[in-house]
Q: What sequence folds into this?
C-alpha cells in the first residue's frame, strides 16, 4: 500500500478522485431527484465539443468546455420553460448537435490527438498540480453553494411550483443548479472522461436513494459511495493495472446492486402492508370504531 | 366598507393555445371562506395561480393586499398554497417534519437554518391537522388523505393571511374528505383566515363556505350557498 503513496502523481490523482467523487455525488442527488440525468449527459457532450474546438484552434480546453456546457444547459432550461418542448426533447436535440460539432471539429484536425481522446475516456493519472488546484477551487465553491442554498434546493426538488408560490426565486435557483451541474461536469471531464462522468453523478445518488427517506441523509450516503468508489477504484486500477474510470464505475454499479438488494424501503413496504392489514382486521371486528 | 383582500377587475387569463377564463370581476373580503366550483378545465386552478402571480393576466388587473400581482414576490409569503395532490411525487425522500418546515423557508430567508421558533410553529401546524404523531414518518408512507393533511400543515406553517387550496379532497375517501373540510373550517374560524377552496364537488363545501363562485371560463355567478343552489346557471355549469 505504501508504494501507492510514494508517487506524487498518485497522491494528486487520489485527492482529485476524492474531490470529484464527493462533488459529483452530492450534485447528483438533485439531478436524480429532479429527473435531470439526461441533461448531465448533454452537458458532458457539449463540454467535449468545447474541448475538441479548443484543440482545433489551439485554445484553452477548460474555458471552451465551460462556455459550451453553460450555453447548452441554459438553452435547455430556457427552451423547456417556454413550454414548446419537453426538457428531454430539447436536450435530445442539443445533445445530438453538440456531438455532431465534436465529430466535426475532430474531423477538421489534421492529425490524431491523444490528449483529446483522454477527455473522452478520462485519464485521472495525468492530473497536474494546476488541474488539482482548479478541481479544488471548483469543488469547494460548488459544495459551499449547495450548503448555503440547501433548504431552497430541497424545496425546489420537492415541488418547484410550491417553491415559487412560497415566494422563493425558483427560476433563479433552478438556473443556479443547472450551472453547478455544468461546472461540476466540466471540472471532472479530464479525470473521468466524457463517457463516465455521468456515472459519478447518477449512480451514487441512485444507490443512496434506495437506503433512506431523507434527502439530507441521501446526500451524505451518496457522498460516501462516490468517495469510497473513487478511492478504491483508483487503488484497484494501480494494483491490477486496469483503467481507473472503469474500475470506479464498476464499483459504483456493484454498490448500486447491493443497495437495491438490501434496501430497507422493501421492508418498509412490507411493514406498511402489515399495518394496513391489522387496521383493516380491527375494523372488521369492531365496525363501529 | 373594508378594502377587499383580493380583487379581480376584468381579468382575462390564457395559455398559448386557449383561454383559461375571461373578464372576471370579483371582490373577496378579509376572513371570507369562498368555494370555487366548476367542471374540469374551467379555469379554477388557474385562478389560484393568478392570485399568486404565477400566471400573468392578458387583460385586467388583480390586486392582493392592495398590491398588484406584478409585484407578487412581495406578498407570496403571506399566502399559503395547497397545490393539487398530483403535483407531489410520493417517492420523493422526505420526512413529514421536513415538508412542514418548508412552510417556514420564505420567512427564514437565505443562508439561515430553521430556529427553534420555526420548528415550534411547524409542530403547531402539524397538531392543527392532527398529524403530530407522524412527525418522523416518511411522506411516502402516508395515505393520500394523510399526505394532504401534511400539505395543509405546510401551508399553515407559513402563518398566512390567505389560504388557497386546489382540490384538497380529490382522490381521498369520504371519511377523509370530511376530516379535511372540518379541519379547514376550524382553521377559518380560529385563525380568521381568508380561504379560497377549489373543488368540483358542490355538495361537499356547502355547509362550510360563506360564498360559492361558479366558474366555467367565465364567472357565471357568486353568492351565498343557499341561494346559489337555486341559480339556473348551476345545472349548466356543472352538468354541461
A:
Amino acid at each position: 500500500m505504501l508504494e501507492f503513496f510514494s508517487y506524487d502523481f498518485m497522491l494528486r490523482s487520489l485527492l482529485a478522485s476524492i474531490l470529484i467523487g464527493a462533488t459529483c455525488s452530492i450534485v447528483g442527488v438533485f439531478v436524480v431527484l429532479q429527473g435531470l440525468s439526461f441533461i448531465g449527459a448533454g452537458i458532458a457532450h457539449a463540454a467535449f465539443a468545447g474541448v475538441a474546438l479548443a484543440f482545433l484552434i489551439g485554445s484553452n480546453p477548460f474555458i471552451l468546455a465551460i462556455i459550451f456546457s453553460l450555453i447548452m444547459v441554459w438553452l435547455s432550461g430556457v427552451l423547456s420553460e417556454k413550454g414548446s418542448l419537453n426538457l428531454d426533447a430539447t436536450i435530445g436535440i442539443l445533445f445530438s448537435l453538440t456531438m455532431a460539432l465534436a465529430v466535426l471539429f475532430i474531423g477538421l484536425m489534421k492529425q490524431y490527438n491523444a490528449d483529446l481522446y483522454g477527455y473522452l475516456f478520462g485519464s485521472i493519472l495525468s492530473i497536474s498540480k494546476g488541474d488539482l488546484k482548479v478541481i479544488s477551487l471548483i469543488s469547494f465553491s460548488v459544495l459551499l453553494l449547495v450548503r448555503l442554498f440547501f433548504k431552497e434546493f430541497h424545496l425546489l426538488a420537492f415541488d418547484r411550483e410550491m417553491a415559487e408560490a412560497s415566494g422563493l426565486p425558483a427560476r433563479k435557483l433552478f438556473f443556479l443548479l443547472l450551472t453547478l451541474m455544468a461546472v461540476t461536469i466540466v471540472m471532472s471531464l479530464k479525470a473521468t472522461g466524457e463517457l463516465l462522468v455521468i456515472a459519478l453523478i447518477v449512480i451514487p445518488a441512485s444507490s443512496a436513494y434506495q437506503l433512506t427517506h431523507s434527502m439530507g441523509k441521501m446526500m451524505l450516503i451518496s457522498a460516501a459511495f462516490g468517495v469510497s468508489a473513487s478511492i478504491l477504484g483508483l487503488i484497484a486500477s494501480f494494483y491490477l493495472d486496469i483503467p481507473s474510470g472503469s474500475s470506479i464505475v464498476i464499483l459504483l454499479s456493484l454498490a448500486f446492486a447491493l443497495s437495491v438488494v438490501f434496501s430497507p424501503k422493501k421492508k418498509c413496504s412490507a411493514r406498511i402492508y402489515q399495518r394496513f392489514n391489522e387496521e383493516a382486521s380491527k375494523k372488521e371486528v369492531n365496525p363501529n370504531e | 366598507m373594508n378594502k377587499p383582500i383580493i380583487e379581480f377587475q376584468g381579468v382575462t387569463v390564457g395559455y398559448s393555445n386557449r383561454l383559461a377564463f375571461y373578464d372576471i370581476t370579483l371582490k373577496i373580503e378579509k376572513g371570507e371562506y369562498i368555494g370555487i366550483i366548476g367542471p374540469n378545465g374551467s379555469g379554477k386552478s388557474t385562478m389560484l395561480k393568478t392570485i399568486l402571480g404565477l400566471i400573468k393576466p392578458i387583460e385586467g388587473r388583480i390586486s392582493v393586499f392592495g398590491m398588484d400581482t406584478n409585484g407578487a414576490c412581495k406578498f407570496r409569503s403571506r399566502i399559503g398554497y395547497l397545490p393539487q395532490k398530483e403535483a407531489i411525487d410520493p417517492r420523493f425522500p422526505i420526512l413529514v417534519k421536513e415538508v412542514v418546515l418548508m412552510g417556514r423557508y420564505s420567512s427564514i430567508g437565505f443562508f439561515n437554518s430553521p430556529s427553534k421558533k420555526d420548528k415550534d410553529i411547524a409542530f403547531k401546524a402539524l397538531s392543527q391537522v392532527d398529524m403530530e404523531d407522524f412527525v418522523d414518518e416518511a411522506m411516502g408512507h402516508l395515505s393520500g388523505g394523510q399526505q394532504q393533511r401534511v400539505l395543509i400543515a405546510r401551508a399553515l406553517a407559513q402563518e398566512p393571511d390567505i389560504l388557497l387550496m386546489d382540490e384538497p379532497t380529490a382522490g381521498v375517501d369520504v371519511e377523509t374528505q370530511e376530516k379535511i373540510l372540518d379541519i379547514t373550517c376550524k382553521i377559518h374560524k380560529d385563525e380568521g383566515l381568508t380561504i379560497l377552496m377549489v373543488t368540483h364537488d358542490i355538495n361537499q363545501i356547502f355547509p362550510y363556505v360563506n360564498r360559492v363562485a361558479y366558474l366555467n371560463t367565465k364567472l357565471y355567478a357568486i353568492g351565498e350557498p343557499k341561494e346559489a343552489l337555486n341559480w339556473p346557471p348551476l345545472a349548466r355549469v356543472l352538468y354541461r
Notes: Chain B has nine helices and ten strands.
